[in-house]
């Protein structure tokens, strides 16, 4: 049964601890009783169809004082020490003006960043099995890492994958906090057969989703990252979603700016990439591992974005400013579970693509 309700919600990436948002825009929220049969999936499936996340920048330079340091295997103590719970800045930005500006900010999800043990092997697997295209690749020997960007279309108009290879590191702990990445394909069965032939692992064979007409399957790439495959021909955004596990769903939704399940994005779910949050009853802490890094989100102003996050008691992991060497302006924030998001200046990102 699918029931739609309208609830008032503010703009994304602020923590509404200080005021009510009844005056803000309303978004559609769906409660869907048809949940996946995925064995590790929670029975809880409250779905939110519209939200607003952001764009991104090449992952190799998305975090920390040195991009390479933040993309290498992270020790939990290091990340904890680097994260500061900052107070609101002395500026002319008020809660009302911050919310109004965020609603007008041109944000979209740019790419998801994670680490792999063999860059060429993963590129070959993604292009041959998933049908992705290698968009660009670069090597940064002075900082001992390489990057590759893959997807189903140009980076300025499609959500993409940014793979990072750190010299000498051939294996990562995926943890149990990253649930999966979602891809829409023409034929689930064909992709599953390719995965089997190319050294991947099939977690769940193609099957109808709870008696519906939707066919899904779950597979693993050579590094152990899980992918949900769903059948949909000519999807405008084949790389459809990233699903993360959270310890408190209401708290996380409150942070990302929605109310109800886990599907958050900057536009209609059938046309745009989305972030999905999963809560498993009784589990409040997850192992994030050291493979997954972050989602990159575009913004018109990283400085104002950081101010807005601070104004609502958000956690800033990297103050806004240009990255050494390339001058792309970014800022980094953490959600209540410690998942990282990187806001990237829209104009600077397009310059990188040139």
TrEMBL record:
Catalytic activity: (R)-S-lactoylglutathione = methylglyoxal + glutathione
PROSITE patterns to which the protein is assigned, alphabetical: GLYOXALASE_I_1, VOC
Residues covered by the VOC domain: 108-232, 238-346
Its EC number(s): 4.4.1.5
Keywords, in A-Z order: Lyase, Metal-binding
Record InterPro entries: Glyas_Bleomycin-R_OHBP_Dase (IPR029068), Glyas_Fos-R_dOase_dom (IPR004360), Glyoxalase_1 (IPR004361), Glyoxalase_1_CS (IPR018146), VOC_core (IPR037523)
Pathway annotation: Secondary metabolite metabolism; methylglyoxal degradation; (R)-lactate from methylglyoxal: step 1/2
Pfam families: Glyoxalase
GO MF, one annotated term: lyase activity
PANTHER family: LACTOYLGLUTATHIONE LYASE
Stated family: Belongs to the glyoxalase I family.
Function: Catalyzes the conversion of hemimercaptal, formed from methylglyoxal and glutathione, to S-lactoylglutathione.
Protein name as annotated: lactoylglutathione lyase
């Amino acid at each position: 049964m699918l029931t739609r309700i309208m609830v008032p919600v503010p703009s994304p990436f602020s923590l509404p601890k200080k005021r009510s948002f009844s005056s803000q825009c309303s978004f559609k929220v769906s409660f869907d009783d048809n949940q996946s049969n995925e064995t590790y999936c929670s029975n809880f499936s409250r779905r939110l169809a519209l939200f607003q996340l952001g764009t991104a920048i090449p992952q190799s330079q998305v975090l920390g004082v040195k991009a390479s340091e933040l993309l290498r295997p992270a020790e939990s103590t290091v990340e904890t020490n680097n994260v500061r719970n900052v107070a609101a800045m002395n500026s002319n930005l008020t809660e009302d003006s911050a919310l109004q500006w965020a609603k007008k900010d041109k944000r979209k999800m740019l790419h998801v960043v994670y680490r792999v043990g063999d860059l060429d092997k993963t590129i070959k697997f993604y292009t041959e099995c998933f049908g992705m295209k290698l968009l660009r690749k670069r090597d940064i020997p002075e900082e001992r890492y390489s990057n590759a960007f893959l997807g189903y279309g140009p980076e300025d108009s499609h959500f993409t994958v940014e793979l990072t290879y750190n010299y000498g590191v051939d294996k990562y702990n995926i943890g149990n906090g990253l649930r999966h990445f979602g891809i829409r394909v023409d034929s689930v069965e064909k992709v599953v057969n390719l995965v089997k032939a190319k050294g991947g692992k099939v977690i769940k064979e193609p099957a109808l989703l709870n008696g519906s007409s939707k066919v899904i399957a779950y597979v693993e790439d050579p590094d152990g990252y899980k992918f949900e495959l769903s059948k949909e021909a000519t999807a405008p955004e084949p790389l459809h979603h990233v699903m993360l596990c959270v310890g408190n769903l209401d708290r996380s939704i409150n942070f990302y700016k929605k109310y109800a399940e886990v599907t958050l994005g900057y536009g209609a779910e059938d046309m745009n990439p989305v972030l999905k949050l999963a809560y498993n009853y009784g589990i409040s802490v997850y192992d994030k591992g050291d493979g997954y890094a972050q989602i990159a989100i575009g913004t018109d102003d990283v400085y104002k974005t950081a101010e807005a996050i601070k104004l609502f008691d958000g956690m800033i992991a990297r103050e806004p400013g240009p990255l050494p060497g390339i001058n792309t302006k970014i800022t980094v924030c953490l959600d209540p579970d410690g998942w990282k998001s990187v806001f990237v200046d829209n104009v600077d990102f397009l310059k990188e693509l040139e």
